[in-house]
From TrEMBL:
InterPro entries: NAD(P)-bd_dom (IPR016040), NAD(P)-bd_dom_sf (IPR036291). It comes from Anolis carolinensis. GO terms for cellular component: cytoplasm. Monomer. Forms homodimers during oxidative stress. Interacts (via N-terminus) with elongation factor EEF1A1 (via middle-region); the interaction is direct and competes with EEF1A1 binding to guanyl-nucleotide exchange factor EEF1B2, thereby inhibiting GDP for GTP exchange and reactivation of EEF1A1. Interacts with nuclear transport receptors XPO4, IPO5/RANBP5, IPO7, IPO9 and KPNB1 as well as GCN1L1/GCN1 and LRPPRC probably through their HEAT repeats. Binds NCOA5/CIA. This is Protein HTATIP2. Keywords: Acetylation, Disulfide bond, NADP. The gene is htatip2. Residues 32-180 form the NAD(P)-binding domain. GO terms for molecular function: catalytic activity. The keyword Transferase does not apply. It comes from the Eukaryota.
Length: 246
């Protein structure tokens, strides 16, 4: 495993990598496409025409109309009975996972269920369905031995997804996401106000724009993985570096 690899390619290299990738006609699924990161990721994937087919796997159907969504299909699944929806995961080359909840919304048990168990189960079905590259949105500080529930669960899910043995597994560890969340989360709002100001002094330490994370994910996918290296962990500074090139 190696951390913080993938210096950003220059725009010309990236353009060429993207064109090569488009020619492969690959398919992908996104878990969490209704969330802050997931919806920007979906928009970026469609804007760049990266995949011949995109499947959104979620607990509810999203209102997506019109030409931009012509090659998008949706699979509504019950995450508590995920084996019944194994077919939804079949036949995708790449899987993106931006799933997650909070302890405040779902309680401690609910948080573990979503952020660890749903993700692990989805990843297993994806692997069984032929997925070769799994892209997991984890968190800065993820650590399976942490005494903090959030960081421990993030560390645990990283370890479990790695153990599944994808040909390539890219783990993103963003710091606090800066974006335009519609949902009211007062504590998070205040934290982001303070950290947003701090970002002016030290942009890559405590925060990262959500759009940068999404851009880094698509850039990561079009760049070939390094031979013999199955797992890449991208810390916050690496996400900034990789996500700055459009
Ligand atoms: N927010 C941050 O500052 C931050 C920082 C570092 C890492 N992260 C991590 O990054 C990931 C994405 O964060 P985000 O803020 O972009 O996420 P988000 O906006 O909260 O979206 C979460 C996604 O997960 C789905 N989801 C939540 N609970 C679910 C459940 N019980 N069953 C099925 N689906 C469920 C949501 O679907 P619905 O729309 O149906 O609810 C949504 O698509 C999370 O794992 C988070 O822990 C976040």
């Amino acid at each position: 495993m190696r951390r913080d690899r993938m210096a950003a390619p220059n725009p010309d290299e990236l353009k060429s990598l993207r064109e090569d990738f488009q020619k492969k006609n690959q398919t992908c699924f996104i878990l969490g496409a209704s969330g802050e990161t997931g919806k920007i990721l979906l928009a970026e994937i469609l804007r760049q025409h990266l995949f011949s087919r995109v499947t959104l796997i979620g607990r509810r159907k999203l209102d997506l109309e019109g030409q931009p969504y012509a090659n998008v299909s949706q699979e509504v699944v019950d995450f508590e009975k995920l084996d019944e929806s194994a077919a939804a995961f079949q036949g995708h080359d790449v899987g993106f996972c931006c799933l997650g909840t909070t302890r405040a919304k779902s309680g401690a048990d609910g948080f573990v269920r979503v952020d660890r168990d749903y993700v692990e189960h989805s990843a297993k079905l994806a692997k069984a369905g032929g997925c070769r590259h799994f892209v997991l949105q984890s968190s800065k500080g993820a650590d399976s031995s942490s005494s903090f529930l959030y960081l421990r669960v993030k560390g645990e899910v990283e370890a479990r997804v790695q153990a599944i043995g994808f040909d390539r597994c890219s783990i993103f560890r963003p710091a606090v996401l800066l974006g335009d969340r519609q949902e009211s989360r007062p504590g998070e709002w205040m934290t982001k106000k303070i950290l947003g100001a701090y970002a002016c002094i030290s942009p890559t330490t405590m925060t990262v724009p959500t759009v940068t994370v999404a851009q880094a994910m698509v850039n990561n996918v079009v760049m070939p993985g390094k031979d013999g290296q199955k797992v890449e962990i991208l810390e916050n500074a690496a996400i900034h570096a990789l996500g700055k090139t459009k």
